[in-house]
Amino acid sequence: MSDKIAYARHGEVAVLTVQNPPVNALSQAVRQGLWDMMDRAEADIGVRAVLIVGEGRAFFAGADITEFGKPPLQPHLPDLINRIEASPLLVVASMHGVSLGGGLEVALGCHYRIAVPSARVGLPEVHLGLLPGAGGTQRLPRLSGVEPALEVMTTGRHVGAKEAHDLGIIDVIQEGDPAENGLAYAQKLLAKDAPRRPVSGMPAPAPIDWDATFEATLARSKGQISPAWCVRAVQASVEKLFAEGLKAERQIFYDLMQTDQREGMIHAFFSERQVSNLPELKGVATRGVNAIGVIGGGTMGAGIATAALLSGLPVTMLDMTAEAGMAARKRIEGNLSGALKRGKISAEDHENILTKALSITTSYDDLSEVDLVIEAVFEDMDVKKKVFAELDRVCRPGAILASNTSYLDINEISATTKRPKDVIGLHFFSPAHVMKLLEIVVAEKTELDVVATSFELGKRLGKISVRAGVCDGFIGNRILSTYRTAADHMILDGASPYEIDTALERFGFAMGPFAVADLAGLDIGWAVRKRKRAEGLDPRARDASYADKLCEAGHFGQKTGKGYYDYAAGAKARVPNPDVMPLIEAERAAHGITPRAFTGDEIVRRYMAAMVNEAAKVVGEGIARRPLDVDMTLIFGYGFPRYRGGPLKWADMQGLGGLLDDIKSYAQTDPYFWTAAPLLEQLVAENRTFDDLNKKG
Ligand code: CAA
């Protein structure tokens, strides 16, 4: 008997209903249950067809990801699917919600497939560093042809029912209850004596240029290998007999299962869900947020307003003057027309947002009714304090007062109000309506329900929200500032910005740090350096000033056409700015440094050591609660390659002992910068990993 699969007999049809909430993952118990119930149906006199249907939200969300990386348990999914397909009974799948990965592969092992119009299917295994390993790479091409099958599995995207029907994946689309639809369909097939129709028996599809497709896919995937291996598995579906093709697929699946990329991506999958899961917020009632205010309509404020408007919230945008307000409206309109073009909103929504949901004002009094205000004004403590004094004056009691500061002390800002318990940091990343990261910075006096409400707002805005404590730069910018400093030191010692960018882009970063600086605007880093120098640098710190000279010459990066790179031919066709190396060489000479060569590996090793060491300090000091909070911050806000799992997961996979040895060896020439994080030393001494700390919850 199985408690995961209910068995019911309806005339000649045995109905197997999968009951494994929340998403019917194909755990060992589900696989065993399906196997046993197929046996039962085949032994049940008078049964001629089997219907497989899921209860709850989905048909099947795929293999049970929690079992990956552990010894595989029988029955294996490919064997189960072969067993279903080989059944002498007619087997029908009735699909609703999602049918993903192994879930779609079960459906492809059935002889007929019916789905409700809202059903979605997909083979998202590449997002876990894998490929479809239960026949998907062999069966899907036989239904849809090679190129559509490869497109579906290398992107891992969800395919709607209509498109899946066009691709030959779904036979019938029908509104209604999946169980009733499936039963009627099975009965209809029996009535017309429809034959069993195993996909494995269908002819192999036509070949393509496999090597060229493999190389092109590899190049597109920026270092991630699993999409390209889908090409080799599909090649086997064309060139080998079905059973041999399955073996080839299985071998690649097992090989990918052993990779760090698989481990990194599965860490990212679960961390993405765990990151907003904070025990202290369980059961805390939130304050309703039905209208928000945004102060400052620059790029950041306009992006925040856009994100809120797109989530259905009305926004009052305040700027200093009517002209500034007009400019803010223009920016928001620009963002919204992008969303309209990409089909994210309808023309009607677009119209409503602009005419009804957005209002622009220059008067603080217009913020008296909003539930939450986010300040996104110039990054200067005195300016922020003035804004918060005004908010304290006009906002209703209980309204949440948030600052989008990226570095400044939120305790100090909140202390200027009479309601520090209502003050919090909501640090968005530019462009705020696109970037997924939101740092929720909890100040000393912030009340728990303000934190809970901020997480709820983050979810509504579609953000990955990470809790951070107060310090200079919080989680992300504090770590960024350290690894950028490591990059500057390498430049003083002989590396070029272009060698550094190339090495890190090869590592998998979306952009190298100097290209990122050009994109963000070099004036931002310049302002931070000036502030830090004004606060007083430690005399032991190495300070690089070549970038200041670029700024002094008016080169702020992409927005002025030149920074580290020259953008005369467009952002993508960047070429090194010839003014940069002479500035660097002059600074090296002034410091009496004889430049030395750096290999790409050494660049990555030093850069990552600096990142991991600072991240360990951030976790050790409680600024980030868990290592996974750092990993999600870097992946969603800083272009860290998801397939490496985040810097601390990467560090675990490299071995913490080796990293600590590196840090100690670098410390011999610069002991001030390379002070090892106490947490890193402790983990090495105790032979533990960062991930061990994640498991504590
Ligand atoms: N295995 C185990 N747990 C899973 C799971 C899976 N395949 N899919 C989802 N879950 C869990 C989530 O971790 C989450 O757990 P918590 O509530 O404890 O956090 C819960 O189910 C609900 O998931 P979401 O919060 O993500 O819910 P959602 O409604 O936003 O999304 C979903 C649902 C679209 C199914 C999404 O969870 C998803 O994309 N899941 C992964 C699907 C996938 O990658 N399948 C392929 C698996 S690999 C495979 O099948 C290999 C093969 O070829 C044999």
Give the mean pLDDT: 96
Number of domains: 3
**What ligands does this structure carry?**
acetoacetyl-coenzyme A
Question: Radius of gyration over alpha carbons?
Answer: 28 Å
Major pleated sheet:
8 strands, mixed
Shape summary: globular
The CATH superfamily of the largest domain bears the name 2-enoyl-CoA Hydratase, Chain A, domain 1
Key features of this structure:
11% strand; 3 domains; 2-enoyl-CoA Hydratase, Chain A, domain 1; N-(1-d-carboxylethyl)-l-norvaline Dehydrogenase, domain 2; 19 strands; Rossmann fold; 6-stranded mixed beta sheet; 697 residues
Give a quick rundown of the structure.
The chain is of the alpha/beta class and 697 residues long.
What does this molecule look like?
With 697 residues, the protein is an alpha/beta fold. The chain has 3 domains: 5-258, 2-enoyl-CoA Hydratase, Chain A, domain 1; 289-468, NAD(P)-binding Rossmann-like Domain (Rossmann fold, 3-Layer(aba) Sandwich); 476-695, N-(1-d-carboxylethyl)-l-norvaline Dehydrogenase, domain 2. It contains 29 helices and 19 strands. The strands form 4 sheets. The protein has an 8-stranded mixed beta sheet with strand order 12-11-10-13-14-15-16-17, with helices on both faces. β2 (13-18), α1 (28-43) and β3 (49-54) form a beta-alpha-beta unit. α4 packs across α5 (146-155). The longest helix has 21 residues, at 600-620. The chain is globular. The mean pLDDT is 96. The structure holds acetoacetyl-coenzyme A.
